[in-house]
Write a structure and sequence with these properties.
By secondary structure, the chain is mainly alpha-helical. 66% of the residues lie in helices and 4% in strands.
C-alpha cells in the first residue's frame, strides 16, 4: 500500500525524486510541450548560441514529451535505482552520480551533433531537439554491472545478469531508436516556435 511506497521513497530518496520528476514533467509537457521543449530539451543552437540555455545539458536527460515514454523510463530508473542508490552510501553521492551522468549525456550529445554538423553542414543538426531518459538508464545499468554483476536482473530472466545489462540497454535503445520510439525529435524545432 501507500505505507510501503513512503518507506521505499525514504530508503531511496533520489531514485524516488527522479522517477517522480520524469513522470510529472512528461504529464506537464503533454499540455505545454511547445513552451517546455525548447527550454528543457537539448538543442545545440539554444544551449551554446545567443540564448545560452546551458541547463539543457542536464535537463534533457530527465525530459520526456510523452507520458508513454516517461512511464517506462521512470519505471526503469526506479527499478535500477532501488538497487544502486543504497550501495552508493550517502544520498548525495548518488545524486551527484545522477547529475554527472545527465551532464555527460548532454555534453556527449552536443559534441556528437556539432561534429555531425561540421561534417555534413546540415543546419538542422544544430536545431534538432534531443531528450530522454535512456542515458540515465544506461548509467544505472553500468552501476548495476559494477555492484551486482552476477545477480539476475529479474527472477523470470535468470540468464540476464548485471554483467549483461549495459549491452542490453544499448541494444534495446538502438532497436527502439530504429523503430522511432525514442524521444529524439523528428520534427524541426521551428515547428515549436
Amino acid at each position: 500500500g501507500m505505507g510501503g511506497v513512503k518507506e521505499e521513497a525514504e530508503r531511496v530518496p533520489v531514485t524516488a525524486a527522479v522517477g517522480a520528476l520524469v513522470v510529472c514533467v512528461a504529464l506537464l509537457s503533454a499540455f505545454l510541450a511547445k513552451a517546455m521543449t525548447p527550454t528543457l530539451g537539448l538543442i545545440v543552437a539554444n544551449t551554446t548560441g545567443t540564448r545560452f540555455f546551458i541547463w539543457n545539458l542536464v535537463t534533457a536527460a530527465f525530459y520526456e514529451t510523452s507520458p508513454l515514454r516517461a512511464l517506462p523510463g521512470a519505471a526503469a530508473i526506479v527499478w535500477a535505482g532501488r538497487e544502486v542508490e543504497p550501495r552508493f552510501g550517502p544520498w548525495y553521492f548518488f545524486a551527484g552520480y545522477v547529475f554527472l551522468c545527465a551532464l555527460a549525456c548532454g555534453v556527449i550529445t552536443s559534441v556528437g551533433l556539432f561534429v555531425a554538423y561540421v561534417l555534413t553542414r546540415e543546419d538542422e543538426l544544430l536545431f534538432r531537439v534531443t531528450h530522454g531518459t535512456v542515458g540515465l538508464i544506461g548509467a544505472l545499468a553500468v552501476a548495476l554491472k559494477r555492484f551486482v554483476p552476477e545477480q539476475p536482473i529479474h527472477g523470470a530472466l535468470p540468464a540476464i545478469t548485471g554483467e549483461l545489462l549495459p549491452v542490453g540497454v544499448i541494444a534495446l535503445a538502438a532497436a527502439l531508436w530504429a523503430l522511432g520510439a525514442l524521444g529524439l525529435a523528428r520534427a524541426p524545432t521551428d515547428a515549436l516556435y
